[in-house]
Design a protein that fits this description.
The protein is α/β, with parallel strands linked by helices. 56% of the residues lie in helices and 10% in strands. It has 11 helices and 5 strands. It has a 5-stranded parallel beta sheet. Helix 3 runs antiparallel to helix 6, helix 7 runs antiparallel to helix 8 and helix 7 packs across helix 9.
Length: 263
């Protein structure tokens, strides 16, 4: 296709830009070009400045879309961010440490992270928020519930696809496993989960959220030796954050109820 190149014909030039953007797959420039051109004319921008403006707009929008695709691919059940987290409501959590973790050095080094605490203390919020920030920064992140992961591994083993599945979970930079230790696993399930952790050991990071202290994991992993090995995989060289036992989610609900009753 040959595009018109006449100068000074605004309508033809606009049509040419539209057609060129379609051919080059520049949807943001195509949709914003009229406004950008009007702004450039009003502000008497140089040719170089006007050329830079739509290109930067397109680059920014592509980066935004890539970030959205990465976040969607992670599989988070809901949106959570560190900005939304109320550190004042849970003094057990060191805000400085969390913000240090948000700089990703532990992910670069392939170190683990354990968030341990009762329900409502913010561990899943932090797990999702840290994972989302890492995904936005360009790291490959995957979120999964512990039971769902084990079920997937068992199904893969039955279909002779275990190696492929373990490799897929091994490739991501950060594997976020939520609700770790909530349910008892049979020996087969525990061993399959151990294989995933071993695949990632000292190469790629694992972050888990659990409502059980390490001493209580024997209820999930009933083989003591296997339980000890899993604890070792998830703690060696990593960070352990205890979010406590007081549910600030419950406290917030109670405070809201008291406020409504008083009003």
């Amino acid at each position: 296709m040959t595009l018109p190149r006449q100068r000074g014909l605004t309508e033809q030039a606009t049509t040419a830009v539209d057609q060129a953007c379609r051919m080059l797959r520049l949807p943001t420039i195509r949709s914003q070009f009229p406004d950008l051109a009007e702004t450039a004319s009003r502000e008497q921008m140089s040719y170089l400045g006007f050329l830079a403006e739509p290109l930067l707009v397109e680059c920014d929008d592509r980066a935004r879309r890539r970030s959205e695709r990465r976040i969607k691919a992670v599989g988070f059940p809901r949106d959570k961010s560190l900005r939304e987290f109320d550190f004042d409501a849970n003094p057990n959590i060191d805000a400085a440490m969390i913000h240090t973790l948000a700089k990703y050095e532990w992910i670069k080094k392939g170190l683990p992270l354990c968030l341990i605490g009762d329900s409502g203390t913010g561990k899943s919020h932090l797990l999702i928020a840290l994972g989302a920030q890492a995904a936005t920064a360009g790291y490959r992140v995957k979120y999964v519930l512990a039971t769902k992961l084990v079920n997937e591994l068992v199904e893969a083993a039955d279909k002779k696809q275990l190696t492929k599945t373990i490799a897929r979970y091994g490739r991501v930079d950060l594997l976020c496993i939520d609700e770790f230790g909530y349910m008892e696993l049979d020996r087969r399930g525990a061993e399959l989960l151990f294989q995933v952790l071993t695949e990632r050991e000292e190469n790629n990071s694992v972050a888990i959220a659990s409502n059980e202290s390490f001493s209580g994991w024997t209820k999930t992993f009933t083989d003591p030796r296997l339980c000890a090995a899993i604890v070792d995989r998830l703690t060696f060289g990593g960070n352990i954050i205890e979010t406590g036992t007081d549910s600030y989610r419950l406290a917030t609900t109670r405070a809201r109820a008291v406020h409504q009753a008083a009003s």
